[in-house]
Amino acid sequence: MKRHRHACRSSAALTRAAFALALTLACSLGNAAAAQCERPARLRFSFVPQGELQDDGAALQPLLGDLEKSLGIPVEASTPASYGAVTEGLLAGAVDLARLGPATYVSAHRNDARITPFASLVRMADAFSEGNASAYYSLLIVRQHGSVTSIAGLKGKRLALADPESTSGALIPTHVFSRQIGTPLNKYFSRIGYSGNHEQSVAAVLNKEADAAFVASANLGSLIAAGKVKRADLRVLWKSAPIPFDPFVYRGQLCDDIKKKIRAVFFNKKSANLQATLTNLRAQEFVPVSDKNYSIIRDLP
Fold this sequence. Notes:
By secondary structure, the protein is of the alpha/beta class. It has helices at 2-36, 56-59, 61-71, 83-92, 102-111, 167-181, 185-188, 198-206, 217-225, 256-266, 272-280, 295-298; strands at residues 43-47, 75-78, 97-99, 116-123, 135-136, 138-143, 158-161, 191-194, 212-216, 234-239, 243-244, 248-250, 283-288.
């Protein structure tokens, strides 16, 4: 009997030890998981270049104030010279929050699936929206009073694209328009150059530095609304199917409470700063998005 009681005491001790060990392991795993998320000392917000007319850093300034207040840390805004530089910043951990083009997002997400889209814009109607302000289009434009009046007339001419990672200014032309004409762009046009952004592509056409350009309808619509370009000076030869608007994304490594606060700022319709930002962006509202919204871009052949 004594041996039995001793065995029971030993068994109980072992059970307590096993429980303590399990608890220690659980705590260690929990602490490790918590340590994996990041709390930056400042939030770095970056944007793909839109052109001089639309400086996202200035347009979003009221919203940046709300972000700083909610997060309790400074927010830095920057616009690099290229779309790719924003992607590189996200992948390297040098950028925490970004506005990307749809194709730029798909490329970035392919390299890091933790990059998460959470918001996009519903724009104000413009000359090309046709009542669908939740999407935009790739437009092939030429000078209204130039010698080219048809797609066939562009064979052997000079073409301006925006940026290699621009959705409407490069990806759609390369994958969709080229199929429609039955030949790659570099075999149809005598010269193809990258302007850097849509505004510069429009200027290249008007200044006769290029015979045609693929540009985003939203950007061209903004230029026309601002009086920088006359609608009568340009002819649209081709228009794509609707394209989902640019996603705002954050790095997946940010801690969940930081992500939650960022989303809350973007969707706080009672904020006067939010309304001022939307006015600056010529937009009606921010709307939630997820990765599936950009499947149409990912599925391009």
